[in-house]
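Support request, please re-run this one:
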Amino acid sequence: MVAALEQEAKEKAAALEQEAEAKAIRIEEAVKASKALNAELERKQRYLFETRLQLEAAEKEKAANAAEAKRVMKAEAILVAALEQEAKEKAAALEQEAEAKAIETRLQLEAAERENAANAAEVEETSTVMPKVENEATKEDKIQVRRAAIANARKQPKNKDEEKTLADYYGAMDLEERAFTILYDLGMIEMSPDPDSPDYNHDLDDEFA
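Re-run finished. Output below.
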């Protein structure tokens, strides 16, 4: 009887021991699973945190880029407006200048037309009323023109443009014609007038003598 009880006690003790070992194994496995789960949760949390930081940085950069783009667009708009205003002012100034020149030119043309008309009327009146006086005035004008030409030819010194013009003018002549023309232009000789010509001016007889 005692042996049976001892055997039963041993069997129960062995069963309890086996059950305790099984519980210990399950607990250990549960701890391992919990640690693995915690590690996975920590990894995911770290990933989420890093992702959030990246998104915040991207948002900040996007906002900065948007602000810079807005600033650049505003500066460009101001520059374009300034250039357009400058172009308008220049165009207005040019238009005013052109109008002023057109008015000035028109006034000059009108004045010239009035002067020409007055001169024409005066010439017509003079030629109709006093043809002889006009002929005498014409002869006097010719004398004055001739004397002025001689004075101008003798004037020294001459500038480079005048010297070049004279060189071109005389250079186109042959030697004999050039010598005669130079002497004539300087008033050292004169064309022999025809005393029988109606245009003969006796006022120059003393100069020809």
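Residues 131-208 form one domain. The first helix runs from residue 2 to 129.
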